[in-house]
Amino acid sequence: MKSIIATMVSALLVCTGAAMAQEAMYKGQQDHIDADKSGEVSRQEYQAFMTNAFGKLDADKNGSLSQAETANILTADQFAATDANGDGRVSKDELMNRVMQDFSAADKNGDGSLQ
Ligand SMILES: [Ca+2]
Ligand SMILES: [Ca+2]
Ligand SMILES: [Ca+2]
């Protein structure tokens, strides 16, 4: 059974992923997520897209995201929640951990892809 805190964290994760997906849709990048045009986004496709997104967001190419670099997609609270070790920067691992948890939360039937 999920605790209330776990449920709230899941809700936050979904919000962040949804915001990123919306951003991608807005920029006409949905084809980039569904790389093989199967009509579904697989875990691999999602991971590849988010890895690419990390590279684009990391404006100064220092390997981590500052709050300023994520200002368009993360609120201060979302940034703090993603910054697992609390060092004020979101590393690639921290982002990937979060978005892949988000993927799992969104994959309600557990088949490893999002329709
Ligand atoms: Ca696909
Ligand atoms: Ca950076
Ligand atoms: Ca961090």
Automatic annotation (TrEMBL):
Residues 31-56 form the EF-hand domain. One of its GO terms (molecular function) is calcium ion binding. It holds the Pfam family EF-hand_5. Keywords: Signal. Transmembrane segments: none annotated. SMART domains: EFh (SM00054). The keyword Signal applies. Gene3D superfamilies: EF-hand. Residues 1-21 form the signal peptide. It comes from the Bacteria. This is EF-hand domain-containing protein. It comes from Paramesorhizobium deserti.
